Amino acid sequence: MKKNKSYDAVAEARKIKEKLSVKYWGHPDQLMKDLKAVRKRYSLRLKAAK
């Protein structure tokens, strides 16, 4: 495996995940607000759970 990478996508994904977890930890209302805005922006709908 090549050790000298110019870009490490896995490390970048971990950084993003950590940043978001810190932002939303203890703030579920802010998370829901942001998710609602994303759904509206991209016209996404939640599938009804059966």
The radius of gyration over CA amounts to 16 Å
Shape: elongated
Strand content: under 5%
Order of helices and strands: HH
The overall pLDDT average reads 86
Q: Count the E strands.
A: 0
Q: What is the overall number of helices?
A: 2
- Judged by helices, strands and strand pairing, the structural class is mainly alpha
Ranges with pLDDT <50 over ≥5 residues? none
Question: Which sheet architecture does the biggest sheet show?
Answer: none
Query: Span from first to last CA?
Result: 44 Å
Percent helix among the residues?
A: 55-70%
Q: How would you characterize this protein structure?
A:
The protein is 62% helix and 0% strand. With 50 residues, it is mainly α. The chain has a domain at 24-49. 0% of the residues are buried.
Task: Detail the topology: elements first, then pairings.
Layout: H1 9-24, H2 28-42
Concise overview:
The chain is an all-alpha fold and 50 residues long. The chain has helices at 9-24, 28-42. It is built from 2 helices and no strands.
Tags for this entry?
about 60% helix; elongated; mainly alpha; about 50 residues; single chain
